[in-house]
Sequence to fold (365 residues):
Amino acid sequence: MINRVELKNFGPIEQLDWQNLSKINLIIGNNGCGKSFLLKALYCSVRTLEEYKRGDNPYDEREILADKLYWTFQPEKISHLMRGTSNSDLVCSLLIDEKKFSYSLDKDSTKTKNFKSLDNQVSPRIENSIFLPAKEVLSLYNLILRSRQLDILLGFDNTYFELALALQVAAKQMVKVQEDYWNDDDMAPQLNSLSTQKLLVKGHNSSDFNKSRKDLEIMIGGRVEFDDASKRWYFIKNEQRFPMGVTAEGIKKIAILDTLLGNGYLSEKSIIFIDEPESNLHPQAISQLLDIIAILANHGIQFFLASHSYFVIKKLFLIAQEQKMSIPVLSYQNDEWVQSDLLDDMPDNPIIDESIRLYKQEIGL
Fold:
C-alpha cells in the first residue's frame, strides 16, 4: 500500500506532501491543477516495482521507470515534465509499505532514462495495479493494441495500453464460470477442478470479490465477453449480444472493472487508480460503484480517485462516517494542496462551494 507521496516540480504540481494515506484516497480540484498528473506519477512508480524482477525481465528499475514515464506522459523533452517556471529538479518520492522509492530528474537530462538519482528500498511487487481512465477502452481495444504493439506510435498513453493488455488476459485466459458464481457462492470446489487454477490469485475467489462482481453486473444488467472469432468485445444482456458501439459508455466502464476482478488480474494488495469515477454514470450508479469500491478496499485493494463530482465527495463522506473509515482527501485550494479526511468532515473546496451557491440561488428563486 502507498503510505505517503511527495512531488516537487512535477508537471503542474509545484510541491505536495500527502501523508497518512489509507485504503481509499480522493483527489479533488479544478481543471488543470494536476489531479490526473498525480495519478499517473503514482502509477508509473507502482508499475515499475511490479515489473522489476518479475519472471525473466532483465531490465533494472531505471530502464523500466524510464519506459513508463516516456510512454505515460509522452514528453518531447524532459523539461516538459517539469514545472515551467522552476529551475528545481523534478522529484517523486513514495513510501510503499513504509519503504522508500524515489527518483529525481534535472533540466540537464536529455531523456527520461537520465535520472539524477534513484533510490529503491521496496521489494518487487507480485500484485498487478491498473489505471482506469475517464474514457472507456473496450471500443478502442484493437486500435490501442495495434497502435502500440505493431505501429509503436505515440498517442494512446501507457494507462490505455496496459489496461488493454490486462483485458487481453481475460480475452485469452478468463475462466468461463459466469453462470456458476452468479447462482451460488460455492465457487472454490468448481474452480479447484479446473486446469486454469494457476491463474487464480489471492482474493480472486473471495466472497467480497464475488459479491462485488455480482453487484457490478446487476448495475449494468449484464456482462462483457470477448469473441475470439471476431476479436471484439460484446455486451451480453439476457443472452443477447450487443456490439460495443451501441453500448452505453457507463456500462463499458463498469464492465472493465468487473472483467479485471473476474480474470484474476486484480488481487489483494492491487492498487487501482480511477480518473473521474463519475464519468458517464448517473448519480445512483456513482453511489453503487463507490459502495463496491468500499467493499474491495476493505478486502485489501487500495484506491486513488480523482474527481470533480459533488456526488462522489458526498458518498465517500457517508461511507467514511458509516464505516468509521479514514478517507484522506487532497484538495487544491487557493493555489496550494490542502489535506483533510472525510472521517473528520467534508472539506472546503470549490466543488462544494459551487453546490452550496446553487442551492442558495434555488432558495432565493
Notes: The chain has eleven helices and 14 strands. The chain has two domains: 1-129+270-365, 137-269.
